[in-house]
Amino acid sequence: MELHRPVMPVQVLAHLDAGRGGWFIDATIGLGGHAEQILAASPDNSVIGLDRDAEALELAKERLRADGGRLTPIHADFRRIKEVCQESGRESVAGILADLGVSSFQLDSPERGFSFRFDESGSESGCCPLDMRMDRDQETTAADLVNTLSEQKLAEIIYQYGEERAARRIARMIVATRARTAITTTGQLASLVVRAVHQKGYWRIHPATRTFQALRIAVNNELEGLDRFVADAIDLLETDGRLVIITFHSLEDRIIKQALRFQSGHCACLPNQPECRCGARKRVEILTRKAVQPGDQEIAINPRARSAKLRACRKIGG
Hints:
Low-confidence stretches: 120-126
Strand order of the largest sheet: 3-2-1-4-5-7-6
Radius of gyration: 21 Å
Number of domains: 2
CATH superfamily of the largest domain: Vaccinia Virus protein VP39
Largest sheet: 7 strands, mixed
Order of helices and strands: HEHEHEHEHHHHHHHEHEHE
Helix content: 25-40%
CATH class of the largest domain: Alpha Beta
CATH topology of the largest domain: Rossmann fold
Number of strands: 7
Structural class: alpha/beta
Number of helices: 13
Shape: globular
Oligomer: single chain
Distance between the termini: 44 Å
Strand content: 5-15%
């Protein structure tokens, strides 16, 4: 497997101010690329690494084995960050990073079913099960959703999470197909989507991309609790501590942007309300007026970075 390339490593370290030393949390450690660079930034750095993918966490542990025990790996969802931090005996940390993208390990593992590029056959005997679980301990897979949800619910998921205009046609095709045979592989679903959208010829982006994104988000509840995560992470930061979050699609980025604005004291009440009732108070200074994006050189080396957006803040008070 190709060595995992962390996204925007220079920008991450700069916004975390990782060179000053201290305890950091990599809330989505993946294969450990960012954690490795945080540990290298100062001999005084230690990292608590969270991930809900137990297999990726084991690979990160092996990658960082030589770092003198400065990594504390924990199998947990990043949204449990406050509980996990307390259980590990840390009341506050110098910085927190959350890279919300799917890891290269997950994308490059055919048996995980995140990508359709390994299974173009469309047959039931294809090698890639329609899975998409980041945490394989959970029960519900993408195949479960595709084969059990109503046509209306499938259309809602594909439209809302994939921003796919052909959501109704795709949902209709899914339901018609599963009446004859269960949809169990990535190839089956990708082929079905191509037929549903009637898109032929050269594709800059594969027609099934948005549908796969939508199902992955639904399977892993990726948008649920993101605003709460931001608030909990800021609670854990020491004064002048940094929070850095990398997103890979507009739905996530919008939630993170709004959550950071609220934590920086911007009122979230409706415009016609006579007084503020949302409780907004200035807890952080936003360090990124606009989302930071990778440069052309990084994208050329690591094409998966092309949709990444980084936002960061600094804690200024309790």
